[in-house]
Write a structure and sequence with these properties.
mainly alpha, 2 domains
């Protein structure tokens, strides 16, 4: 009996270690040097591979993929990688998500998310108002356009944009 329990425990430990290694590999941070393949130079194929990694990382992040077009971010990243200076990946990514990168703002996704949030808010706090649909369209559009003017990936900033839109759309 004890031998069977020990065997089962050993199998469970082995399986959990295997899945933990898979999960860790999936979320392994791959910085700029990972993609250089040890020769200290970036080939076009290595730059493309790094841009694809940036795209996949963006797509797997719910907030990044909601507020930005990940394909646009990856393209802007790839363009920046072509510059003469070797800049760390994290520095480029931070600049892309917190800079005047308005061409990559996902205004349709932002407006849709703001509209849904506004509808939920309105059903509780503006239940007697008959113009909630018009109000929420206004909130959604103002939120998206204001984010596009100054795209900063920060939840407090996004909350301020939504609140400002809700106050101005009376």
């Amino acid at each position: 009996m004890i031998k069977n329990l020990m065997t089962a425990l050993l199998i469970i430990c082995a399986l959990s270690a295997f899945t933990a290694d898979d999960a860790a590999a999936q979320y392994e941070v791959k910085d700029s040097f990972y993609f250089m393949k040890g020769d200290g130079e970036f080939s076009d194929a290595e730059k493309d591979e790094e841009a694809l990694y940036v795209f996949n990382t963006c797509q797997s992040n719910a907030i990044q993929s909601l507020y930005f077009d990940c394909a646009c971010i990856a393209g802007a990243f790839r363009q920046e990688r072509d510059s003469e200076k070797l800049v760390p990946q994290s520095q480029i990514i931070n600049a892309l998500f917190n800079d005047n990168n308005s061409q990559c703002a996902n205004t349709i996704g932002i407006a849709g998310d703001a509209y849904e949030s506004c509808q939920e808010y309105s059903s509780i706090y503006r239940a007697r108002n008959k113009d909630n649909n018009k109000y929420c369209k206004c909130v959604a559009n103002k939120t998206a356009l204001n984010f596009q003017k100054k795209p900063i990936l920060n939840t407090d900033y996004i909350r301020q944009l939504r609140s400002g839109a809700m106050l101005s759309c009376k």
